[in-house]
Specification:
5 helices, mainly alpha, two-stranded antiparallel sheet, disordered N terminus
């Protein structure tokens, strides 16, 4: 493997409960591998939960894999992020919650870690609000009338 590529152990798998992932190794350009390592430290210091850490790092890794070492991180632009979020929407479930998580991950990665403000103006759809399912007045009356009186 060329020297410009860094192989780092995935920081997500330091927990022995994550069985099956222990052998996952990142083969990314050294700059990307170093950025992921620093990103992990930054998230840990910020006090994010282990699950949030895992998902944020997973989306950041997928984003960097999508770049395929074609450009330095400082040259990433808004269109790279939009393309990645579009791929997230098309692949998998494409739920608004998944897209929001990917967006939040990249926002922290670029804004807080790299100090490169390219994600702030990207708008994503919000989770659709659903009305609760409730019984109508006649249904409630029927339900109450069907209960036998007495103890228990």
């Amino acid at each position: 493997m060329p020297e410009e590529y860094g192989i780092i152990q995935n920081p997500l798998v330091s927990n022995p409960q994550n069985t099956g992932l222990e052998k996952e190794v990142l083969a990314l350009p050294a700059e990307y591998a170093q950025a992921l390592s620093g990103f992990h430290q930054e998230l840990s210091l910020a006090g994010y939960s282990p699950r949030t850490l895992k998902m944020y790092e997973w989306y950041a890794k997928r984003f960097l894999e999508g770049l395929q070492g074609k450009k330095p991180l400082k040259e990433c632009n808004r269109q790279d992020v939009v393309d990645f979020l579009a791929k997230v929407k098309e692949g998998g479930t494409g739920s608004s919650a998944g897209i929001a998580l990917a967006h939040a991950s990249l926002k922290f990665f670029f804004h807080e870690y790299l100090k490169h403000k390219i994600v702030e103006d990207i708008r994503i759809s919000k989770k659709a609000k659903k009305l609760p399912v409730v019984l109508s007045r006649p249904e409630v009356k029927i339900l109450i009338q069907s209960v036998k009186s007495g103890r228990n």
